[in-house]
Amino acid sequence: MSINYQTLSFDYKPCREQAEQGDAEQVAYPVIVVGAGPVGLATAIDIAQQGVPVVLVDDDCSLSTGSRAICFSKRSLDIFDRLGCGQRMVDKGISWNVGKVFLKDELVYTFNLQPEAGHNRPAFINLQQYYVEGFLLERAQEMPNLQIRWKSKVVGVQQNGTAGSAQASVTLTVDTPNGQYLLRGRYVVAADGSRSPMRNLMGLDSHGVTFKDRFLIADVKMEAEFPTERWFWFDPPFHPNQSVLLHRQPDNVWRIDFQLGWDADPVLEKTPERVIPRVRALLGPDAKFELEWVSVYTFSCLRMDRFRHGNVLFAGDSAHGVSPFGARGANSGVQDAENLAWKLAMVLEGKASDALLDTYASEREFAADENIRNSTRSTDFITPKSPVSRVFRDAVLKLAQHHPFARQLTNSGRLSVPAVLRDSPLNTADSDSFEGLMVPGASCVDAPVHVAGESAWLLQQLGQQFTGVLFCGSEGIDQMTQAALDTLQSGPIPLKLVVVVTSNDAQVAAASGAKVVHDVDGLAAARYDGKPGTFYLIRPDQHVCARSRQLDASFVAGALKRALCVEGTA
Questions:
Q1: pLDDT of residue 570
Q2: Which among 16, 62, 249, 310 has the fewest CB atoms less than 10 Å away?
Q3: What is the rounded average pLDDT for all residues in the chain?
Q4: Which residues pair with 157 in a beta bridge?
């Protein structure tokens, strides 16, 4: 039976703290997450999966309405896989790799975001935000160490002790239908959206640019012959001098974005009398459709100066915001969640210093700057700010029909890709020569493999802990595997070992503690430049942090200490 996630309502339930208001020794939870949107839910699930108790509070009692964020990237799907709900999203979502750009009624060019085979997930799926929240919520409800508290609005924030010390904590004042109570946590993750009450309560601001343009979003339910692609029109005949974007969603719902201009009345433009003629101009006079959801938005590119403030860490829209072109908002927020969760777990378990959380801020601030830069450029191209820039844009579009160089300049929204954290202090610089994209700081790419004779995928083998990946050829595999196991178990923390066998003829004994996979198509070795003997150290968020052509105990120990911000690294 299909669930209508937009109509679900969740009951408020009194909590233990409300019965212990006079208890001065109230125990602090390890982590409190504020906000039950996609980022807050993903953060809470990720932390709980790593064995850390977490409380999630939200001031509402329902999921989002309307499609809102709909484009979820391959990287986000890889993260959702690790969180235990990726397959549900792919099954429900509309998968797509191809986009088309039009000028007036002529096709300018077509692009493919995943032109090569051998990937488990598509470049993107389209899936309404309420489905994403619903699937994440159902996963969260399966976890015994994750409490969800609805109708719990944070109205006060107080930091206690010296930030970074073991005694530091945060006390939240939470307002509920039964009155207010105090909720204490060692760390608090603020994932409470672009208007962020947490940010306001702490007297913090976001800085950036608000663009003087407005767009209409119309979710239209209809039977249509459009292919499952992203279509973007510049100056189409059905909406002259403006831009239009079309995406297909599940349930025969189509997202249409109409550029309106800065002078448009946002209240008037949401009325059916204004929306229906615009949709009919696109679809034709005889088209049959229903309006499911309508919104008008003005977009900004901005971020907080710092994402960490003592023991409060900001993630998702509360920390940064971009225009919707390029699907960089929700995808970036999900990547915030995966970056932060493992670091909190390591610090709370005493395996890393509190300084590791500073790298959450620096890495994700870098990623936010990259997203804002790309989003700003997209917006400037889509909505020219002067006659000269309009002439330049139209000239680029006309050239792009026949000249590949101009297609690099065409910008209908550079679509979300994960930031490569090249300058992260957690990386160990290469001392050997490598080819390809899997540099320290890059997120791992997938490849088809065989495990015990069955088809599988490389990323599924990595899990969510520090992992060593060792590439082996056809000789000395058992000895190399045993040596790797001995090395990885002797470091600051034990590591998982994945052995990638690059020879189809090689036989491998079942080494205790190692996951052995066969690179039957050679794509893993090609994508990681995995010559026999090559070793990769992978973070719990599946980012490369070190690699070497030869496995060495001191190299692994030093790289792991660096990745944990442990003193004594070289």
A1: 43
A2: 16
A3: 92
A4: 172
* Integer CA distances (angstroms), 31 to 45, 167, 362, 422, in order: 12, 14, 20, 29
> pLDDT digits over 236-287, tens only?
999 999 999 999 999 999 999 999 988 999 999 999 999 999 999 999 998 9
CA 461 centroid distance within chain: 20
> Token digits for 525?
């070795």
| Residue found under tokens 């493992």 | 342
Q: Which two tokens stand for residue 310?
A: 């003592």
What distance in Å separates the CA atoms of residue 416 and residue 329, rounded to the nearest whole number? Answer: 9
CATH number for the region 448-563 comes to 3.40.30.120
Class of domain 5-93+127-206+302-373: alpha beta
| The model's pTM | 0.95
Round to whole Å and give the CA distance between 87 and 165: 40
Q: Which CATH architecture has domain 215-298?
A: 2-Layer Sandwich (3.30)
In whole angstroms, what is the distance from residue 536 CA to residue 549 CA? 9
Query: Within 10 Å of residue 275's Cβ, how many Cβ atoms?
Result: 20
Question: For 293-342, how does the pLDDT look when each residue is reduced to its tens digit (9 = 90+)?
Answer: 999 988 889 999 999 999 999 999 999 999 887 788 899 999 999 999 99
Name the segment(s) of the chain with CATH classification 3.30.70.2450.
Answer: 215-298
Beta-strand runs (E) in 424-507 = 448-451, 454-457, 467-472, 496-501
Work out the number of other CB atoms within 10 angstroms of the CB of residue 412.
Answer: 24
CA 430 to chain centre: 27
Instruction: Count the Cβ atoms, other than its own, within 10 Å of residue 354.
Output: 17
Determine how β-strand 535-538 pairs with β-strand 467-472: antiparallel
Note whether 176 and 18 are within 8 A (CB).
Answer: yes
User: Which residues, other chains included, contact 133 with Cβ-Cβ below 8 Å and sequence gap of 6+?
Assistant: 5, 36, 37, 38, 41, 63, 64
Confidence bin at 25 (pLDDT 50/70/90)? low
Write out pLDDT tens, residues 489-507: 777 788 899 999 987 766 6
For tokens 């198509």, what's the residue? 521
